[in-house]
Amino acid sequence: MTLEFSTLFSATNIKAIPLTNRIGLAPMTRTSATPEGLATEDMARYYTNFAKGGFGLIITEGTYTDDQYSQGYFNQPGIINEAQIDAWKQVTSSVKQQDAKIFMQLMHAGALSQGNRYTTETAGPSAVKPQGEQLGFYGGSGEFALPKVMTETDIQNVIQGFVKAAKNAKEAGFDGVEIHGANGYVLDQFLTDYTNERQDEYGGAIEKRLRLSIEVVKAIREAVGVDYPVGIRISQAKVNDPNHKWKGGESDAEIIFTKLEDAGVDFIHIAEPNAAAPAFGESGPSLIELVKKYTDTVVIANGSLGEPNIAEALLNDGKADFVTVGKAALANQDWANKVKEGKQLEEFDFQKILLPQASLKEFEVKPKIEWLGEGMVCGPDGNCN
Ligand SMILES: Cc1cc2nc3c(=O)[nH]c(=O)nc-3n(C[C@H](O)[C@H](O)[C@H](O)COP(=O)(O)O)c2cc1C
C-alpha cells in the first residue's frame, strides 16, 4: 500500500459497523429505477462496481420515503412498499458480497419535486415558489410549482414516511440510513429562512426551523433502535441556490450541529462544494471543522475531495473521520483501488459520464444544462465547474 494514503485506507467504524477504509461513495441520484421506483439489476451491478472498486461504504442515491409528496424525480427509486424492499435486496446482497457496507439515503423532495408518480402537486413549509428552474438533467423543465403549505397532518406524514422508510431500509439489508437534510429538499426547506415563513412551531427562529429535522431523527432512532446507524446530510448550498449561506454564520452551525447530535445522529455528512473551504466568507473554519468543534459525532466530509492528497490531509488534520467522493467516483468506479495502487485517475467528463443517462433520452431533454448539480454548474457545452 502507498503509505502516503495510510489514513484513507485505515479501518474505522460507524457505530458497530466496521468499515475497511475511510472512503465512501457520495449519494448520487441517477433516475435509473423503474417507473414504479424499483431498483433494477443494472443498479445492483452499478453499486457493486463501486464495492469491487474498493469503496468501504456505499451511500445510495436519494430514495423517496412515502406515496405523497416525497418523490422528487421520475425513475427515482423508493423504499415504501414490499416490492421496493425486495428490489433493493438484490442491491444490498450483491454489494455485501464484496468487502463493503451500504447505507440508504432517505429523501423527501418537498417543494423541489419535479416528477412524482403519486401526485402532480408539490408541498413544502410555505407557499414560496422555489428559486431557479427544474433540473433538465433529471427530466424537468421550466419553473418549479408553487407548493401547497404543509398542514400539521402533512408534517406528521413526512415524519412517519421517514420512519417507515428507515425500517424498510433495515429490512432490505442496508447497514444504516442517511437522512437527506441537505441541498434544498424538504428538511432544508424548513431550515431555510426564505422558504419557511411559518408562524407555528416549525417556523421562526432557527431552533424552530430545525424542529422537523430533529423530530425525524428522533422518530427514526426510536423506530430502528440504538444500535442501527442513523446519520444526516447537511449542506448550505442547494441544487437551486448553490451560493446560499446560513445567515447566523457559526452561531447557526453550533445550534444545528449540537441539536442534531443531541437528537441521536451517529454521523453528520457535510456536503459543501469544497469541503476544505471556509464555511462563511473568505476565511475561518470550514463547516466540517465546525461539526468537530461543537460535537463528538462522526464527521463525513464531501465536496471536491476527488484528489486523494486533499482527502488524506483532511483526515490527517483531524478535520473529518471519513470522506465521500461523488463525480470523481463516477469517473473512476474503482477510485479507491486506483489510489491504493498509485494508478492514474480519469478526469470527470460530464459529456461522457452523465449526459448519456436514461432520463435525458427518455424525456428528450436537450442538454440545456443550467444544472446546479449539487456542487456543480454545467453550461450547454457540457463543460462543468
Ligand atoms: C449526478 C449527481 C447526482 C447527485 N444526487 C445526489 C443525491 O441524490 N443526494 C445527495 O445528497 N447529493 C447528491 N449529489 C451531490 C453529491 O453527493 C456530492 O455532494 C457532489 O457531487 C459534490 O461532491 P464531489 O465534488 O465529490 O462530486 C449528486 C451529485 C451528482 C453529480
Radius of gyration equals 19 Å
Taken from the alpha-carbon principal axes, the silhouette is: globular
Overall SS class: alpha/beta
Distance between the termini: 32 Å
Bound molecules: flavin mononucleotide
Stretches with pLDDT under 50, minimum 5 residues: 358-377, 379-383
Oligomeric state of the chains in view = single chain
Largest sheet: 8 strands, parallel, barrel
Mean pLDDT: 92
What proportion strand? 5-15%
How would you characterize this protein structure?
An eight-stranded parallel barrel has the order 3-4-5-8-9-10-11-12, surrounded by six helices. It has a two-stranded antiparallel sheet with strand order 1-2. With 385 residues, the chain is of the alpha/beta class. It is built from 13 helices and 14 strands. β3 (23-25), α1 and β4 (57-64) form a beta-alpha-beta unit. The protein starts with 11 loop residues before the first strand and ends in a 7-residue tail after the last strand. It is globular, with a radius of gyration of 19 Å. Residues 358-377 and 379-383 have low confidence and may be disordered. The chain binds flavin mononucleotide.
What's the short version?
By secondary structure, the chain is α/β, with parallel strands linked by helices. It has helices at residues 41-52, 82-96, 152-171, 186-191, 206-209, 211-224, 250-263, 287-294, 308-316, 327-331, 335-341, 350-353, 358-363, and strands at residues 12-14, 17-19, 23-25, 57-64, 101-107, 123-124, 148-149, 176-180, 230-234, 267-271, 298-302, 322-325, 371-372, 377-378. Residues 26-29, 61-62, 105, 180, 182-183, 233, 271, 302-306, 325-328, 354, 373-375 line the site of flavin mononucleotide (FMN).
